[in-house]
Write a structure and sequence with these properties.
Layout lengths: L6 H9 L4 H13 L1 H20 L8 H12 L9 H16 L4 H15 L11 E6 L2 E5 L4 E4 L11 E4 L4 E6 L3 E6 L2 E7 L9 E14 L8 E4 L3 E5 L3 E7 L3 E8 L2 E5 L9 E4 L3 E5 L9 E2 L2 H13 L16 E4 L6 H5 L4 E4 L4 H15 L3 H14 L6 H14 L4 H14 L2 H17 L5 H14 L4 H12 L1
Parallel strand pairs: 8-9
Antiparallel strand pairs: 1-5, 2-3, 2-4, 4-7, 5-6, 6-8, 7-8, 8-11, 9-10, 10-13, 11-12, 12-15, 13-14, 15-16, 17-18
Length: about 475
C-alpha cells in the first residue's frame, strides 16, 4: 500500500499481533485515513469469516506452499473490487521472510481465493531457467512441500522461493529478455518472473542479500521491479544491483539506465521517490525516505562493472586500472565459462607492469588484424620475459585459448592447459581440465575415452566448482 500504513503492520493490527506502540500508531492513523480504515475493516471481516468457519487443519509446509500458490496464480490482481485480496496476498507473501505466516489470515485468503480461482483464465507463458550456478542453491517446491536443489536448466516459476548459500550465486535468465543473479547468502521470491499474457512488469522480491539485474535486447518497453521491505526499485532497460544490508536497509547501485527507488513508508511525496542515474547509488531504511542519489566509489563502480561482464552483458577487450589483480579473464562464473574461454574470451589487464600491458595490447592489435601467429608470439614473450605468479595462470589459459581457437593447434593448447591444471592457481585448475576435456571431446572419436577420464577427474577432484556441473552433463550424454 503506497502512502499509508505499511501492509505488514496493518496485517498485524488486523490479526491482533501488533505491538502496543504499533497498535496505537495504526489506530491514530486510521482515524484520519479513510483508505486504511476501509482496509482494516475488510481485514476484520475476513478474520471473522474464519472464526465462523471453525478451525482449519494445515500441513507443516502450508506457509511456503500457500505463498507459492498465491504467486503462481496472482488471483485477485486482475479482478476489480478485490483490493483487499491484493493487499492480503502481498502481506502473506512478505511475511515468509519477516515472521511466521499467521495461519488464520492465510486460511481466510485460501478460502476466498478458491471460490474465485475458476473465474480467472491463465494462459501459458515462457518461464525463465537457471543458466549458471555456483555453490549451494535451493528452490522451495510447493508441489512436494519442501526445498529442492536448484539444478542447471531448471525452470523458475512464479512464486518460487530461492535461497543461495555461502559464496555461490545463481543466474536466472528469460531468453534474451533479462538475466538475474542472486548472490550467496541471499533469499528471494520470483514474484512475477515473466511478463505473461498481459505484458506486465517483471518482478522479484528480495528478503536479504544481493541481486543483480541485467536486461537484454528483447526487454523492450517493459519495466523490471525489485521489491524489498523498505522500497520498490523500478527500472527500464538497465543494469543495476539491489542489496538488503544491516537492519533491512535497501541499497541500489546503477551501472546503466535509470532506476526509480520509492520508499514504502509515509505519505507519497516527491521526496519519497529518487531517480538514480548511471554511476550513482541511493539507500533507504524501512520507515524512512530514500537518501538523495550520490556517486558510487571507484571500487563500487569496478565491482559492478566486473559483475556486469561476468553475467555476459559486456565483452571488454583490454582495460587498465590502478588497483586490483594484475590480469583477469572476462568469464561468467557458471559452467559455461569454458565455452567462453575457448572462443577465446577477453582479458582485463589491471595492476601489471607497463611492459606487460604494452605486450598484451600489441598481441591484441595483431589478433584484431588477423595476425594470430604474431599475437601468440607476444603472449609467449610476456610469459618468457616477465613471469609472475600473479598472472601466469591467467595468461596461460588465454594463450591456450588462442592456440586452440585462432591457430587450430589443439595439442599445443592442451599443453598450456595441462600446465595450469598441475601448477596453476587452484581456482583455475578445474577450468583448465574442462578445457582439455572439451578439446578432446570435440576432436577425433578415439579421444572421447580420454575426455571421459578428464570429466570424471573434475567431478572427483573439484565437486564444488562449476565445471563439475558441466562434467556431469557431458558424462550423461557420453
Amino acid at each position: 500500500m503506497k502512502g499509508h500504513i505499511p501492509d505488514i503492520l496493518l496485517a498485524r493490527f488486523v490479526d491482533g499481533t501488533a505491538s502496543p506502540s504499533d497498535k496505537r500508531r495504526v489506530e491514530s492513523h486510521i482515524k484520519a485515513c479513510p483508505d486504511c480504515r476501509r482496509e482494516a475493516a475488510d481485514g476484520r471481516s475476513a478474520r471473522d469469516l474464519l472464526v465462523r468457519a471453525g478451525n482449519v487443519r494445515l500441513t507443516p509446509s502450508f506457509d511456503e506452499a500457500f505463498l507459492y500458490r498465491l504467486r503462481q496464480e496472482e488471483i485477485g490482481r486482475e479482478i476489480s473490487g478485490t483490493s483487499f485480496l491484493n493487499r492480503l496476498m502481498d502481506r502473506v507473501s512478505f511475511s515468509i521472510f519477516m515472521e511466521p505466516v499467521r495461519l488464520r489470515v492465510a486460511a481466510v485468503a485460501a478460502a476466498i481465493l478458491v471460490a474465485i480461482a475458476a473465474s480467472i483464465p491463465l494462459l501459458p507463458a515462457r518461464q525463465p531457467v537457471i543458466v549458471a550456478s555456483a555453490g549451494k542453491s535451493e528452490i522451495f517446491n510447493a508441489e512436494v512441500g519442501r526445498w529442492v536443489r536448484a539444478g542447471l536448466d531448471g525452470t523458475v516459476r512464479r512464486g518460487d522461493i530461492i535461497r543461495v548459500s555461502g559464496s555461490g550465486h545463481l543466474d536466472i535468465a528469460l531468453g534474451n529478455v533479462y538475466t538475474v543473479r542472486i548472490e550467496g547468502g541471499s533469499e528471494a521470491v520470483a514474484t512475477r518472473p515473466n511478463a505473461g499474457w498481459v505484458r506486465r512488469n517483471m518482478k522479484f522480491s528480495l528478503a536479504r542479500g544481493e541481486m543483480l539485474v541485467g536486461t537484454g535486447k528483447s526487454f523492450g518497453k517493459r519495466a523490471f521491479e525489485v521489491d524489498t521491505a523498505a522500497a520498490l526499485a523500478t527500472a527500464t532497460g538497465t543494469f543495476f544491483k539491489v542489496s538488503v544490508v544491516g537492519e533491512e536497509e535497501t541499497l541500489v547501485q546503477v551501472k546503466e539506465g535509470t532506476v526509480s527507488l520509492r520508499s514504502k513508508f509515509g505519505i507519497e511525496t516527491e521526496e519519497s521517490l529518487v531517480k538514480i542515474s548511471p554511476g550513482k547509488k541511493s539507500a533507504v531504511m524501512p520507515g524512512r525516505l530514500p537518501e538523495p542519489a550520490r556517486p558510487m566509489t571507484e571500487y563500487e563502480i569496478q565491482s559492478l562493472s566486473s559483475a556486469y561482464r561476468n553475467m555476459g552483458f559486456e565483452r571488454a577487450e583490454i582495460e587498465t586500472s590502478p588497483d586490483g589483480e594484475a590480469v583477469s579473464l572476462i568469464l561468467p562464473k557458471g559452467p559455461e565459462r569454458v565455452d567462453e574461454l575457448l572462443r577465446p574470451c577477453s582479458i582485463l589487464v589491471k595492476n601489471a607492469p607497463g611492459e606487460v600491458i604494452r605486450l598484451i595490447e600489441e598481441s591484441q592489435r595483431l589478433a584484431n588484424s588477423q595476425d594470430y601467429s604474431g599475437a601468440v608470439r607476444k603472449l609467449h614473450e610476456v610469459l618468457a620475459r616477465h613471469p609472475d605468479p600473479r598472472y601466469n595462470s591467467e595468461l596461460k589459459l588465454y594463450l591456450g585459448a588462442q592456440l586452440y581457437s585462432l591457430l587450430h593447434e589443439p595439442d599445443k593448447a592442451i599443453a598450456e592447459f595441462e600446465d595450469v591444471a598441475k601448477h596453476g592457481k587452484k581456482e583455475w585448475r578445474s577450468l583448465a581440465l574442462a578445457a582439455i576435456a572439451e578439446i578432446l571431446d570435440r576432436s577425433a572419436r578415439e579421444n572421447r575415452s580420454e575426455a571421459k577420464k578428464v570429466f570424471k577427474e573434475i567431478m572427483n577432484t573439484y565437486p564444488d566448482y562449476p565445471e563439475s556441473q558441466l562434467a556431469r552433463r557431458r558424462l550423461k550424454n557420453m
